[in-house]
Amino acid sequence: MSSPISEPQSQAKSKIEGTWQAIAKQYTTGWMGPIEVVETTFPHVSSKVDDIRPVVSPSLPMIVYQTRNSPPENMTVAVPYESGGDKYKCRLVATNTLTGPETKLLAEFAQALWFLIDSAILPHPDEGKSFEKKLLEWTGPSLIAI
Asked: Residue 49: which residues within 8 A CB-CB, separation 6 or more?
């Protein structure tokens, strides 16, 4: 039996359910971590997180958005960090220039995921396929597949 969901958790879940299709039109979404693994895979991220490296979340995944091409033409990594008591600050590191609405969409989606992972509404991605399965229940396969 699952525990009741709080209002902030419900709002975060609604953010995911209400915006995933807009993201999936242009991007596939993935996750990885810790930051050292992301930097090894995507070296361009390193210089863009130098100033926040000490406060990058060690427990939350980076959210990776890649354009729907094979291979992807552009990609953005959402990096979670803590600042001023906010555990879900987001640094977007993109290979291209993002528009204001696009920046807001990608950051808010990542922040909703992080909050729901941290509050155990979503399983942690390290727990095998359970995170992916739950996320797909709320969204659709086009969020994570070309």
From this structure: 35, 39, 56, 79, 91, 93
